């Protein structure tokens, strides 16, 4: 990917309203939601290759490789760049999710800008990163 403005694509387990807010208020990156792309309800195996081809960095709280149908190694082989939100994400109420994402969006954008093709990072609640 060329150096420049990073493109983030947020999965359905992150509120589309929150993504719109972050995009319009922060202007840190180009931010889109799966729903806005018209891919809502599609299986991951359908939309992920398109997103990768369009050079999006995927941001998701979906770490369940069984329901997703794609394992992390498959994503890496496809050339995806993926930021996985840790298990904490599943247990946060909506307001806490919003606060967490607003607090950490700069870190996520900075991380996305540095990611290489075929990489995945797990982000924990306090912002710790584990490269997978």
Name the quaternary structure.
Answer: single chain
Overall form: globular
Can you tell me the CATH class? Alpha Beta
CATH topology: Rossmann fold
**Would you tell me the structural class of the helices and strands?**
alpha/beta
Report the CATH architecture: 3-Layer(aba) Sandwich
**How confident is the prediction overall: mean pLDDT?**
90
Low-confidence stretches: none
- Count of DSSP E strands? 6
Give me the side-by-side strand order of the main sheet: 2-1-3-4-5-6
- H/E topology pattern: EHEHEHHEHHEE
Largest sheet: 6 strands, mixed
- What share of the residues lie within helices? 40-55%
Q: Please report the distance between the alpha carbons of the first and last residues.
A: 20 Å
Return the domain count: 1
Radius of gyration: 13 Å
SS summary, helix count:
6
Q: What share of residues are in beta strands?
A: 15-25%
Description:
The protein is α/β, with parallel strands linked by helices and 132 residues long. It has one domain: Rossmann fold (3-Layer(aba) Sandwich), CATH 3.40.50. It contains 6 helices and 6 strands; from the N terminus they run βαβαβααβααββ. The chain has a 6-stranded mixed sheet. The mean pLDDT is 90.
Tell me the layout of helices and strands.
Layout: E1 7-10, H1 16-26, E2 30-33, H2 44-53, E3 57-60, H3 65-68, H4 72-77, E4 81-85, H5 88-91, H6 94-114, E5 119-123, E6 129-131
Parallel strand pairs: 1-2, 1-3, 3-4, 4-5
Antiparallel strand pairs: 5-6
What keywords describe this structure?
132 residues, alpha/beta, Rossmann fold, six-stranded mixed beta sheet, 6 helices, 6 strands
């Amino acid at each position: 990917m060329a150096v420049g403005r990073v493109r983030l694509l947020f999965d359905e387990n992150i509120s589309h309203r929150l993504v719109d807010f972050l995009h319009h208020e922060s202007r840190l990156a180009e931010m889109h939601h799966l729903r806005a792309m018209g891919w809502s309800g599609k299986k991951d195996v359908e939309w992920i290759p398109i997103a990768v081809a369009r050079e999006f960095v995927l941001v998701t709280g979906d770490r369940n490789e069984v329901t997703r149908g794609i394992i992390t190694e498959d994503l890496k082989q496809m050339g995806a760049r993926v930021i996985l939100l840790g298990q904490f994400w599943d247990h946060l109420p909506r307001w806490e999710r919003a606060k967490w994402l607003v607090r950490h969006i700069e870190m996520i954008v900075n991380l996305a800008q540095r990611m290489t093709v075929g990489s995945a990072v797990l982000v924990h609640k306090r912002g710790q990163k584990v490269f997978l």
